Amino acid sequence: MNKNKRIRSIEDLREVVTPESRVLTLFSGGLDSAYLLYLLSQQKCTNVTALSVDLGDDLDYEEIKNLAAKLGANSIIIDRKKEFVQNFIVPAIASKSIYFGVHPISSSLSRPLIAKEAVDLAGQLNCDVILHTANQSQNSLRRLNGAIEQLDFNGYYGTPYEFSALTRKEKAQNLYKFGIESFNKRNYSGDSNLWCREFESGMLDDPEDFRTPETLYRWSSSQSTKESSQISITFEGGIPTYVNGTKMPLLQMIEFLNSNVGAYGLGRFTGLEHLAGGEKVLEVREMPAAHILLDAYRHLETACIGAETIREKLSVEQIWVREAIEGRWFETLKEAAEMFILNVSKKVSGTITYRLDWRTLEVKSYRANKPIYIRDRDNWEKEEANRQRIKIPSLA
Fold first, then answer.
1. Element of type H or E holding 303
2. Whole-number mean pLDDT of the chain?
3. Which of 127, 191, 238, 334 is geometrically suited to a Cys-Cys bond with 323, CB 3.0 to 4.6 A?
């Protein structure tokens, strides 16, 4: 990939993109992506495709289509929820993919899939430019650029916001003058998919002084309203397949767990994530299904897999997480780490049962299909003593 083809500022955009250019933009319907379409409309671009990849988020796609049309772009919406679950969330569960022990990773999983869909569609439409809207305070910058590079897109690509820093207020005001009023009151940036709802920027800028409004949360409850209950998660070959004995496709299971585990106030995470230069930014997440599935997997893994293998896997997990976080999803090291992890996961089968109570996830039962745990210690002690006595000659 020729990095000289990277678009990094509004000036680059004006220099590279002409009215005849075939442009594909990643379009979430948010302020940044709407303002990018506005910039392209100001350059008289008439062949603009606004791609939205549906990963189970909470977007209004009819509204997205209307907004794109108002800004002179053709909206294309692609449903990739099943691929997201199978090829991204399944290995993330097996990798116990948690950022520095603080929160499950999320956009590290969605960005490579979005980039892949963009590169594929750009090829079909003969687009010579792919644009996204990440800026230097967003980790999506290196994840989207990295994935587009690794997928060998031959045209121009990047974001005009990398070196051109406009405030949210400036963008909203310009869009307001254009006739789009919906962004004037929104004071945060959000990203969502079926695995995570994440919030940052605006009122969440300052780690030393921030408050997350309850209105941002949709899955997790802010107060105790449910009686305690039990829930069991069953895995087959490392893949979650049953909840409370009922078989569920993983996509449906995640939706079920987000609602039912979130009702106990579980799955909220706040943390600092590093940028490419080492600085940290505040991010708030809501991930009830991820919370219980990652926890259940680790518990069941300990019941099925030997200690030495788990010790080695812990280090490989961190390689996998690091490569995903740094935007190297399609590189050899990440793929090699994943092969090891998924090979180990084939032996992870059984059920973990929890007691759910307000903000409490308490393991009540391990039940592995091929357990390596001891169920009767006293009897085991006797049998083991007899075995050792037979092996070792008497001192008499």
1. helix 288-304
2. 94
3. 334
Burial of 383 (0-12, 13-18, 19+ CB in 10 A): exposed
pTM (2 d.p.): 0.93
Return the axis-axis angle of helices 140-150 and 107-125, rounded to nearest 10°: 40
Residue with tokens 């099925």: 304
Q: Are 107 and 325 in contact (CB under 8 A)?
A: no
Measured distance CA(114)–CA(105) in Å, rounded: 16
Residue found by looking up tokens 């439409």 in the block: 125
Nearest to 267 by CA among 203, 176, 180, 361: 361
Q: How far apart are CA 187 and CA 203, in angstroms?
A: 6
88: which DSSP letter?
A: I
Measure the CA angle with vertex 336, ends 330 and 339; round to 5°.
110
- Is residue 392 exposed (0-12), middle (13-18) or buried (19+ Cβ within 10 Å)? exposed
Contact 74, 68 (CB under 8 A): yes
Task: Tell me which residue has tokens 């919370």.
Answer: 291
What is the greatest pairwise CA distance in the chain?
Answer: 99
- What is the C-alpha R_g of the chain? 24
- Dihedral of CA atoms 219, 225, 231, 235 in degrees, nearest 10, equals 10
CB 329 within 8 Å of CB 150? yes
Q: DSSP for 180-229, please give it.
A: --TTSS--SEEEE-SS-EEEESGGG--TTS----GGG-SSS-SS--S--E
| Residue 76 contacts residue 52 (beta carbons within 8 Å) | yes
Tens digits of residue pLDDT in 358-387: 999 999 999 999 999 999 999 999 998 998
Region 268-294: mean pLDDT is 96
Asked if 89 contacts 252 with a C-beta cutoff of 8 angstroms, the reply is no
**Three-state secondary structure call for residue 154:** coil
Sign of the Cα torsion 387, 388, 391, 392 reads negative
